[in-house]
Amino acid sequence: MKPFKTGVTLSATVVLFYALCTLVWLAFPEWFMNFMNTLFHGLDFRRLQTSQPLTWWSVIYPAIVFAVWFFAAGAFFAWLQNMLQGDD
């Protein structure tokens, strides 16, 4: 397993799903909130909503954070898997 490629793949996957999640939320906000509340066993996500308008930065900044964090997690996962696998 190649750590760099694994990190990039995981990072790209998470950012893509984050973008899709954002688009679904923008298109169907009520349905999306119902789905999220059900997905997380009744946790009320509506309490996290604010009256502040959605900006590009409020979407891009978390995507950047996710990209960096999940790249690191994917690269570490591949490195650790290689270390634990050893020479069979």
Description:
This protein is mainly alpha-helical. The chain has one domain. The chain has helices at 3-27, 29-39, 56-85. The longest helix has 30 residues, at 56-85. The radius of gyration is 17 Å and the shape is elongated.
Domains, number:
1
Along the chain, the helix and strand elements come as HHH
The chain-level structural class is mainly alpha
Q: Point out poorly predicted stretches.
A: none
Total of helices: 3
Main sheet summary:
none
| Average pLDDT reading | 93
Shape descriptor: elongated
Distance between the termini: 14 Å
Radius of gyration: 17 Å
Oligomer: single chain
The beta-strand count equals 0
**Helix fraction by DSSP (H/I, runs of at least 4):** over 70%
The percentage of residues in β strands lies in under 5%
Ordered list of secondary-structure elements with their pairings:
Elements: H1 3-27, H2 29-39, H3 56-85
Helix pairs in contact: 1-2, 1-3
Would you summarize the structure shown here?
With about 90 residues, the protein is mainly alpha-helical. Helices cover about 75% and strands about 0% of the residues.
Q: Characteristics of this structure?
A:
88 residues; mainly alpha
